[in-house]
Amino acid sequence: MDCSKCNPVGILDGTPCMTRPRCCYRIKFCPRAHYFRPPEVPQHELEVITLTPEEAEALRLKNIRGLDQTQSARQMGVSQSTFQRVLASAYRKISEAIVYGKAIEIMRATPT
Question: In terms of Cα–Cα distance, which of 35, 53, 65 is closest to 89?
């Protein structure tokens, strides 16, 4: 079922959609660099891990600004559990890139 055409209540053609609408994150920074790669891996062999803007913001708030998860979630305008899921996803992606020698690309935030 294509839930991108759901109305705000989550109903498509009288059938409830099973996915929740994507929440709007407050992202207050733009990284100076958007691509990082290990120099030892040839370009044609390189795999890329993509971080979303919200994952990059979660890393910045938690690790650079030193906020706890509740404060960070408040800054991003999401629940603490949503922030935890975003942060865990970012940690997993960064770890995979480091352990397996993959590049990291940070998606650019699209203005709303």
Answer: 53
Distance, in Å, from the CA atom of 92 to the CA atom of 95, rounded to the nearest integer, reads 5
* Alpha carbon distance 17, 3 (integer Å): 6
User: Domain of 56?
Assistant: 26-106
* Dist. CA 35–CA 103, nearest whole Å: 7
Write the pLDDT tens digit of every residue in 100-110.
Answer: 999 999 998 76
| 36 part of a folded domain | yes
pTM above 0.85, yes or no: no
Q: At what angle do helices 69-76 and 80-100 cross, to 10 degrees?
A: 100
3 falls within a domain: no
